[in-house]
Amino acid sequence: MKANYTIGATATGGRNGHVASENGILGIEVRHPKALGGANDDYANPEMLFGLCGLF
Questions:
Q1: Any domain includes 1
Q2: How many domains are there within the chain?
């Protein structure tokens, strides 16, 4: 099967870091949610990103 479109992304810092698309359009700071030991809920967290994947 031929791929119609591909894009790359990077993640640095693990669960307390930064994720970004290779084209620079998307860049998000991620942190542990408060419920899992994080300081607060002021940032996106990996669970949010995982949940969003199911929407497309």
A1: no
A2: 1
Of 53 and 41, more confident: 41
Residue 3 located in a structural domain: no
DSSP string, 7-48: --EEEESTTSEEEEETTSS-EEEE---GGGT-S-SSSB-HHH
Percent of the chain residues topping a pLDDT of 90: 75
The predicted model scores a pTM of 0.74
The enclosing domain of 30 has a CATH number of 2.20.25.10
**Residue pair 1/13 in contact by the 8 Å Cβ criterion:** no
